[in-house]
Design goal:
The chain is built from twelve helices and 18 strands. It has 371 residues and is of the alpha/beta class. The protein has two domains: 126 residues, translation initiation factor eif-2b, domain 1 (Four Helix Bundle (Hemerythrin (Met), subunit A), Up-down Bundle); 218 residues, Rossmann fold (3-Layer(aba) Sandwich). A seven-stranded mixed β-sheet has the order 8-7-6-9-12-17-18, sandwiched between helices. It has a four-stranded mixed β-sheet with strand order 13-10-11-16, with helices on one face. A three-stranded antiparallel β-sheet has the order 3-4-5, covered by helices on one side. The protein is globular and about 60 Å long.
Length: 371
């Protein structure tokens, strides 16, 4: 996608063959990039959310293993790097998928061949992510076209949650891919962007990237979505996901479940954009089985933004001493509330039979041993 008219990806190899990423902590106020020279820097970038979004985490972790091979291509180094990166974020299944895919490819190779093979596979995974998200968007575009056909000359209002845009992937985004393609086609789309507390990824990231591309949008508070649905101001919801279970439960940023409940109560279609690697057929009951990341309480008690002098400042918004020790980063939306999954393979009902028919069995991932 574009920043000030120029095409960008979220991760790339720079002129010195170093892995470079957009450091999303400073958006939307500053565009800063960061070089990741070693496994420790990848661990920090993923854990501290310099980069975030399930698809992007998977690809960046793959590059992390490639960089590890550049320093030491032994089995010990490979499996140690896998363990280190696997521990950074527990909820997004793409992290497990990306690391397992790299290890399965590299372990059978002699150590002297691993550096070139690792960087080639990581680059392929990045290109694959772009292709999958573009294809996913085409299937979502068909849904937007149908709404536009029923509302000739009127705007199509789409509500999204958190950031499932190109900043959460290598390019295109998941939930936003169809929106960008509809806008590029000349369909009159308008996006309701909820702020997505506590880290405000909607306000800081989704609003920024939509604005860079010229897509009409309005920032709203998290709790306004239900009201807008009650008054007929939302034609559809499209959200992303960090993990989808074999029966169609969807794990996504905290607050997604409440949007799905409001959509169900108001007969608003609720779609989930899911690239294939985000499906986890080893999990069935999302509420009981998916580990939910519990994040630092400072995300609740403090906020960062531009002060009156134009400097980035962090301020405390709650009384000193107020408990903030419950901060789940994600929730699970039961399959019954999902109208359909928008995937790179086509639209899919959120049911075990439909998912099994479209995706079939998945290979078991290869994880490093605990010792």
């Amino acid at each position: 996608m574009k920043i000030q008219g120029h095409p960008w990806r979220t991760v790339w190899l720079n002129a010195d063959a170093q892995v470079e990423v957009i450091d999303q902590r400073f958006l939307p106020h500053e565009l800063i990039t960061a070089v990741l020279p070693d496994v420790a820097s990848f661990e920090r970038a993923i854990r501290e959310m310099w980069i975030r979004g399930a698809p992007l985490i998977g690809v960046v972790a793959a590059y992390g293993l490639a960089v590890a091979m550049r320093h030491d291509s032994s089995d010990t180094s490979l499996l140690a790097a896998q363990r280190t990166l696997l521990a950074t974020r527990p909820t997004a299944v793409n992290l497990q998928w990306g690391l397992a895919r790299m290890v399965a490819d590299l372990l059978p190779r002699p150590p002297q061949d691993r550096v070139q093979a690792a960087f080639a596979l990581a680059a392929h995974m990045a290109d694959e992510d772009v292709s999958m998200n573009h294809q996913l968007g085409l299937h979502g575009l068909a849904l937007i076209r149908e709404v536009a056909r029923r509302k000739p000359g009127q705007r199509i209002h789409i509500l999204t949650h958190c950031n499932a845009g190109w900043l959460a992937t290598v390019d295109w985004g998941t939930a936003t891919s169809a929106i960008y393609q509809a806008y590029n086609e000349g369909i009159g789309v308008h996006v309701w962007v909820d702020e997505t507390r506590p880290r405000n990824q909607g306000a800081s990231l989704t609003a920024w990237e939509l604005g860079q591309h010229g897509v009409p949008h309005t920032l709203i508070v998290d709790n306004a979505g239900g009201h807008l649905m009650q008054h007929g101001q939302v034609d559809m919801c499209i959200v992303g996901t960090d993990r989808v279970t074999a029966r169609g439960d969807v794990c996504n940023k905290i607050g997604t479940y409440l949007k799905a409940l409001a959509a169900h109560d108001n007969n608003v279609p609720f779609y989930v954009a899911m690239p294939s690697p985000t499906l986890d057929l080893s999990v069935h009951d999302g509420v009981r089985e998916i580990p939910i990341e519990d994040r630092a309480g400072e995300e609740i008690s403090h906020m960062t933004g531009l002060d009156a002098h134009g400097y980035l400042s962090t301020v405390q918004i709650s009384p000193t001493g107020t408990p903030t020790n419950t901060n789940p980063g994600f929730d699970v939306t039961p399959a019954r509330l999902v109208t359909a999954l928008i995937t790179d393979r086509g639209l899919c009902a959120a049911t075990p039979a439909a998912i099994a028919a479209l995706f079939g069995p998945q290979p078991q991932p290869h994880f490093a041993s605990a010792d």
